[in-house]
């Protein structure tokens, strides 16, 4: 098969930049984006940067990756949609987006809910679900967005994560020990080539987790 799918669900509080990231991936105008009020599914065929370097004899060089991105509303009253999104679209990975300039507590709660909702998709019985969680091979990506507001410093984003999200993140890792846990710092809005490379890197990682 020359086309492979990489599907992701993008979650996070309102205004963190989920829709902006999707528009960026799709190469669409990111000037005025209105708030997302329902689950939206976007799809785009992309080539990963690493494919350029493959030998002409390699099938990988000619593949297309079809990114399917599920965009969810961030408003707290609409968080139950997240569970629905995870249930309806069994995507390959969950990208949880964080805005370091917004209220932190709400965002920590949101991440905790992501963990809880995902658990509920595994089994209706909570004990069984916890057991399944220990074996689940999911992909959880924390993405700190708006690092243009942190002087484009990945170190600052790292510090911010450690100070605020450590407990929630550790809890997620303990609950889903066989899953992949990664993080990246980006600016969906600003920054040139390097930001594209980082976004590309997120998909590259997901691809590697899925297809080796
Ligand atoms: N400074 C800065 N602003 C951003 C960035 N990404 C998104 N925004 C702004 O944050 C606001 C909310 O973005 P949006 O994509 O609608 O957030 P969503 O609610 O998570 O979908 C918009 O005004 C965006 O222009 C970023 O990387 N840096
Ligand atoms: Mg949105």
UniProtKB/TrEMBL annotation:
InterPro entries linked: P-loop_NTPase, Small_GTPase_ARF/SAR
Pfam families per the record? Arf
Q: Its domain of life?
A: Archaea
Gene3D superfamilies cross-referenced by the UniProt entry? P-loop containing nucleotide triphosphate hydrolases
Name this protein carries in UniProt:
50S ribosome-binding GTPase
Q: Which GO terms describe its molecular function?
A: GTP binding; GTPase activity
Q: Which UniProt keywords apply?
A: GTP-binding, Nucleotide-binding
Provide the organism lineage as a comma list.
Archaea, Promethearchaeati, Candidatus Heimdallarchaeota, Candidatus Heimdallarchaeia (ex Rinke et al. 2021) (nom. nud.), Candidatus Heimdallarchaeales
């Amino acid at each position: 098969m020359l086309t492979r799918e990489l599907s992701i669900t993008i979650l996070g509080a309102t205004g963190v930049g989920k829709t902006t990231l999707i528009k960026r991936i799709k190469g669409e105008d990111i000037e005025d984006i209105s708030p997302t009020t329902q689950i939206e599914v976007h799809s785009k065929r992309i080539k990963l940067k690493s494919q350029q370097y493959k030998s002409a004899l390699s099938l990988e060089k000619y593949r297309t990756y079809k990114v399917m991105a599920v965009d969810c509303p961030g408003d707290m009253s609409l968080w139950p949609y997240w569970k629905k999104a995870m249930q309806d679209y069994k995507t390959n990975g969950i990208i949880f987006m964080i805005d370091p300039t917004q209220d932190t507590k709400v965002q920590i709660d949101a991440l905790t809910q992501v963990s809880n909702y995902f658990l509920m998709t595994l089994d209706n019985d909570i004990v069984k679900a916890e057991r399944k969680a220990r074996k689940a091979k999911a992909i959880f990506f924390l993405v700190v967005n708006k690092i243009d507001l942190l002087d484009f410093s990945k170190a600052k984003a790292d510090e911010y994560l450690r100070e605020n999200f450590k407990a929630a993140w550790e809890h997620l890792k303990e609950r889903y020990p066989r899953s992949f846990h990664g993080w990246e710092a980006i600016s969906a809005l600003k920054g040139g080539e390097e930001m594209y490379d980082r976004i590309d890197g997120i998909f590259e990682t997901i691809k590697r987790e899925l297809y080796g």
